[in-house]
Amino acid sequence: MSKPPEWLAAGWPHIWLPYAQMKTASLPIPVVGGHGARLKLADGRELIDGVASWWTMAHGYNHPHIRECVARQLETLPHVMLGGLAHEQAFTLAKRLAALLPGDLNRVFFSDSGSVAVEVALKMALQFWINRGERGRHKIVSFKGGYHGDTFATMAICDPDEGMHSLFKGALAEQFIVDLPRDAATTRALDDLLGRERRSIAAVIVEPLVQGAGGMKFHEPEVLARIAETARRHGVIFILDEIFTGFGRTGTMFAMEQAGVVPDIVCLGKALTGGTAPLAATVASDRIFEAFLSDDPARALMHGPTFMGNALACAAANASLDLFEREPRIRQIKRIEAQLRAGLEPARGLPGVRDVRVKGAIGVIELERIDREALRARFVEEGVWIRPFNNIVYTTPPFVITDDDLQRLAATMVKVVREST
Question: Which one is catalytic: 217, 270, 394, 405?
Answer without folding.
Answer: 270
